[in-house]
Amino acid sequence: MATRLLSAGYSLTVYARTPAKASSLQQKGAIIVNSPYDVANKSDIVFTMVGHPSDVKSVVLGYNGVLSGLNKGGVFIDTTSSDPVLAREIAAEAGLKGCFAIDSPVSGGDIGARDGKLAIFAGGDSAVVKWLAPVYEVLGRVTYVGESGCGQSCKIANQITVGGNLLGLSEGLVFAEKAGLDVNKFVEAIRGGAAGSMVMELFGKRMIDRDFRAGGFATYMVKDLGMGVNGGEGKDAVVLPGAALSKQLFSSMVANGDGSMGTQGLITVIERINGKSI
């Protein structure tokens, strides 16, 4: 995402908690600084992409955080898959400073980010989201989904859907192989019908080729599904048996030491259940 913004002509100031991860961006012209405060102080628009809601809270609201350095009128955009309640808290804090906060997590993995084809779910002030359109267009397709927190809720619902698709594809491939089918021909046969999906297009070949390099880590899928399964009380509570099963299976990946695999590695769990050595 940062590379695409640089390529589009935007000037970038970057902070990375692991500095080595930003070295390639520095070579492309990004300015590297030592804190989120420094990024915000030098920027009109600040993006964050970190791991967990606790990371977002620390990087944005903590000491030397983004909001401590953001100038009046500045815009903060969180692309992390995070907690809707936290998104609303950050938006309120930003408003007290005369700034704006947009929660806009993304979907599409490493390929979508590289090709500028991410699905972006934006929550917050609709006028600000509209103003950000030229920036979002570099990254993918943005959909405004409602007030602060709605972007995060949309991403959680997205992950519930993706998790179910990954599980179905994993089971279909394992069944097809056990039945003696050529799994490549199996995927080619069904991709144009009702079973076809973007999950299949992004991950089907990777599963078959045993390419489990991460575009999105399995451990983060546990986090995202957990926010759906555990979120809401009373009238807001939703029973999600499919998401609960998906979370359990992704959790078993983490327990097996495979939390840093891509989410397509879910097939290894189904294979283990069926007695295949991984």
Automatic annotation (TrEMBL):
Residues annotated as domain 6-phosphogluconate dehydrogenase NADP-binding: 1-146
GO molecular function, one term: NADP binding
Keyword entries, A-Z: NAD, Oxidoreductase
Domain 3-hydroxyisobutyrate dehydrogenase-like NAD-binding: 149-269
UniProt KW NAD keyword: yes
Keyword Oxidoreductase annotated: yes
Protein name, per record: 3-hydroxyisobutyrate dehydrogenase
Taxonomic lineage from the root: Eukaryota, Viridiplantae, Streptophyta, Embryophyta, Tracheophyta
